[in-house]
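Bumping with the actual sequence this time:
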Amino acid sequence: MIELVRVCSRGSLCMAWMALLVGGSLLAQAPARTTEEGKDEIVWLDRLCQAENWRSVEECETRESKIECPWGGKVMQLYFKVDHFAGEKKYPIGWPRAHLKPLGWERNWQAWDRFEFMVQARISRDGLPKKALTLEFGEGNSNYNSYPEIPELNKWIRVSVPVAEMFKARSALKGGISRLRFVVCESAHKHGDVLEFHVGGFRLVRSLVCEITELAAATPVIFAGQPFVKLDVSVVGPPADVKRGVPFTIRSGARIVRREVLPLGRGKQIYDCDISELALVPGDYQLIVFEDDDARRKSVSLRVVEEPWKQQ
């Protein structure tokens, strides 16, 4: 160590390099910036908003944008000039793109409900194709593609990607998000088109409490004697709270038919609720989650009708 310091003291350049390396390491491991909005907790992915952290390929440039994001922080401009005669030799009508590799804590999304960001699109002609921009999560065969819906130009649009749905489609991503990539398919655009996508406010969001955001009966009318009711459910919240289960009640008017705890997972799912032991008679029922909590209570109607094959 003494010898290293002696060598470095021969010039300020060596010390500058050491400071740069140490500073870069500390920056990569900077603690997450978290905030709360109502009942949501948010961790901000500020490094994703900085153009210099993205590597662009083909007819794509990443620049610092001068437009202010409604959520604050820096904004990156993705600039594409569509050229059907240049680009990669084998694919002149190709896929201009920019990618970034998340670092450290930025890679682990298992405890979060949604990945979100804001986007504002501009184009040199009127209108955008439906899949104007692709956002890829991961690499190779395990990547997951999302196509942000941008119904209006020159207006900030919030993009929200459910993490559980992503993991359901590509389970390998649970081990960490190795890459994010924005891609434009040139075949969807005219030669010479100029596209700008201003993106910012990258963040991960989760509910601070376990709750049901969507509840519906996939089979709202069933025959008496059917063993299951299919519930279309979306669950958010801390994994430990979700694991404890969701209180569930079946009512017929004022009468409680059953109370139980449903072992649901996070995200959107179809759950087969076993009612085989209840022998529900024809009539109208209410299926209720969190019945005793007004803030989280949700209900859906179910009708049981006489089975058509019943012997008279």
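The tokens above came from a reply further down the thread. The CA atoms of residues 8 and 18 lie 9 Å apart.
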